[in-house]
Amino acid sequence: MSNMMTAAVYHALDDIRIEQRPIPEIGPDDILLKTLACGLCGGETMAWYKKAEPKVLGHEPVGEVVEVGANVTDYKIGERLFVNHHVGRVNSHLSLRGKFTRDPFYSSMKLDPGGVCEYYRVTGQHLAMDTHRIPVHISNIEAITIEPWSCVVGGLKHCNIQPGDTVAVVGAGFMGQGFVHMAPLFGAGKVVALDFSDWRLEQARGLGATHTINPKSEDAIAAMRALNNGRLADTVIVIAPFASAWAQAEALVEVGGTLHLGAPLAPGEEWTRDGNKAYFDEITVTSKYSSDHTDTYSYFRLLDAGRIDAKRAVTHHFDIKDSAAAFKMLVEAEKSLKIVVYPHGLPEGL
Fold first, then answer.
1. What is the tens place of the pLDDT at every residue in 7-16?
2. Do domains 4-150+291-342 and 158-287 have the same CATH topology?
3. Which pLDDT belongs to residue 196?
């Protein structure tokens, strides 16, 4: 095997380059994986979120073990694995309080060098904290949803949904579709998707939305009351990363309900609330950054049990050489949900 590999490298939103990079060298506690497929994440379109440039794209890969370190005994060459790109540690103040993803250690642990490349290295800490063998009945296409939709599961754990509750999701991109799809697993009755795109709303109905609202063409609050016996939603989850969307989401929450913030605003972007209403409406505001190993385990078991229709949310497939086109589609966010890149060429049948 050559010591060089092909990688898709982010230099700017409109500058994705195919470059040759060294194949990572593994240490005694590490493994090397051949990338079978990697999803692209909408978070990669937020330029402010990039900590370093240039950067190999992708953190949603599924891989096959091709090399193991001298101390690795639990994993073997040829096994298909999901390994979360960030992993926590057990013994820290934040981790011991259950806030694994807010411990700085979590974000410091990364795949080397990323997911949209031919091979990537994972550390012994990754193997110890958040690695799963993929059974034969779970396809690569389904497996690339493990990282992003584990984040959805983590969010839903915070949403205070009671059996039969009406849940509204503001923003029906791939992550919003995940909240729509899995809210019933947490007890939701009516599930309402809101988006400016009728195409995305149609996809949401296919993934389990009982109702849809397009705020561009109808009064969202009036529409919610009309479909929900005069009430607003018990839980509202906002995925759209805009202050206007957060304001719309807050206005849709019934007294005593929950507003869950499922995506961040840009640094410095303000979100203003009415202090009087904030007190008397008794609305609980929650958030959850990323997924920890417990969320991954929850989602993996749901996927393994056949509860998740992951393939329905995967809409486009690209060879790595076409990564710039794939990323352009991700940025435009029109008629696409999850986009997958294949570093070793498109599989037959796609």
1. 999 999 999 9
2. no
3. 97
For the cut 90, the answer to whether the pLDDT of residue 48 exceeds it is no
Contact in structure between 171 and 263 (CB atoms under 8 Å): yes
Q: Identity (one letter) of the amino acid at 86? A: H
Architecture of domain 158-287 in this structure = 3-Layer(aba) Sandwich (3.40)
> Where are any strands of DSSP class E within the chain?
4-12, 15-22, 31-39, 55-56, 60-68, 80-83, 119-122, 131-133, 167-170, 191-194, 211-213, 233-238, 253-261, 284-287, 314-319, 338-342
Q: 3-state class of 214 per DSSP?
A: coil
Per-residue pLDDT tens digits for 156-206: 999 999 999 999 999 999 999 999 999 999 999 999 999 999 999 999 999
Q: How far apart are CA 237 and CA 81, in angstroms?
A: 31
CA distance between the termini of the chain = 27
Residue 2: the pLDDT is 78
Phi, psi of 160 (to 5 degrees): 55, 35
Q: Which CATH architecture has domain 4-150+291-342?
A: Alpha-Beta Complex (3.90)
Residues facing residue 260 across a β-bridge: 237, 286
For the chain, domain boundaries: 4-150+291-342, 158-287
Note if the bond before 264 is cis, omega within 30 degrees: no
pLDDT score of 50: 64
Tokens of 339: 């986009």
Q: What is the pTM of this model?
A: 0.97
